[in-house]
Design a protein that fits this description.
Elements: H1 2-31, E1 38-39, E2 48-56, H2 61-71, E3 77-80, H3 82-87, H4 89-97, E4 101-104, H5 118-136, E5 142-143, H6 152-160, E6 164-166, E7 170-171, H7 180-189, E8 195-200, H8 208-223, E9 227-229
Helix pairs in contact: 2-8, 7-8
This protein binds zinc ion.
Length: 244
């Protein structure tokens, strides 16, 4: 009986070892992989935080965020979609005029840049950059891919064009943080010198959550002595230090 239990245990261990490689591809996306040459945070010992807003400009949420940022004298970075800039040029000018940084988030926000041909990818990048330069007067070579999706080939094309690629250290909105309060707590708990926080101002109609979370984050972190900076603070040679 005893030897039977032992044999049973042995069999289970063998089975586990055999099945482990199958589990690895499932585990990897959860752990996250850092791409070299991509920025996930600012390297700094100072208490600085970079707030970044993706997917705008939006006619309702972007102005609301601008008012909150002004109230606390905070500057941020807006990764904008080129076609939305064409739709709301007045808001783009407002963002630039109030001293924020505008950066490239493609022209049409394709769901997966890996599915694009190199020509299509280059078009997305160039077209967005042209709209940004013409409308905002800014010409920053900062790029964030939609949904953070990259691969070596995309990185190579961007780097050849002279772009600095920026992802983030913490995204406020997650399935497990569906309310503004939970979103803010998520960002606040992960605050550390150089952290890049991802918030959103466009593409869906529930960005009021990001608006509310922005106020909570700014209020709390200001009280903790954090200073808010734009991604202009990115130093050349900034290395990815951990997965996002
Ligand atoms: Zn996006």
């Amino acid at each position: 009986m005893k030897s039977l239990t032992k044999a049973n245990l042995f069999l289970k261990i063998i089975l586990l070892v055999l099945l482990l490689p199958l589990a690895v591809p499932v585990l990897i996306p959860k752990v996250g992989l850092a791409y070299s040459g991509v920025n996930y945070e600012l390297i700094s010992k100072e208490k600085i935080i970079a707030l970044t807003f993706d997917d705008g400009p939006h006619p309702i949420y972007t102005p609301q965020i601008l008012d909150i940022l002004d109230e606390y004298q905070v500057k941020a970075t807006f990764f904008m979609i080129g076609s939305c800039m064409e739709e709301y040029p007045g808001i783009v000018k407002e963002v630039a005029g109030r001293g924020h940084l505008i950066a490239n988030h493609t022209y049409t926000h394709p769901d997966n840049l890996r599915k694009l041909s190199p020509e299509e990818l280059k078009w997305e990048i160039d077209q967005c950059q042209q709209s940004m330069q013409r409308i905002s007067g800014q010409n920053n070579y900062l790029f964030r891919p939609p949904r953070g999706i990259l691969n070596r080939e995309i990185i190579k094309i961007l780097q050849e064009k002279g772009y600095t690629i920026v992802l983030w250290g913490v995204c406020a909105y997650q399935r497990e943080a569906p309310t503004p309060e939970m979103m803010a707590t998520r960002a606040i708990n992960r605050a550390h010198p150089g952290q890049i926080v991802l918030l959103h101002d466009g593409r869906t109609d529930f960005r009021w959550k990001d608006v509310a979370a922005t106020r909570l984050i700014v209020e709390n972190l200001s009280q903790q002595g954090y200073r808010f900076v734009t991604l202009e603070e990115l130093k050349p040679g900034n290395k990815p230090v951990r997965p996002y």
